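Hi, here's the filled form for the chain we discussed.

Project: internal
Contact: R.S.
Residues: 50
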Amino acid sequence: MATDDFSIHTDGCEQVGDGMPISDLPDEVTSIDDLDCECWDRFDSLAEFT
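And the returned structure, exactly as it came back:
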């Protein structure tokens, strides 16, 4: 992603608690690999989430 001080988590991510729900991923996210937190490990691709 473009900046290191911004991260995206799933609802209920254990690392950040409930977190902030999002409706759309930023344009910088083009692959599931762009999402650093392990809360995204349950998905194989962005298509499963979007």
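Let me know if anything looks off before we file it.
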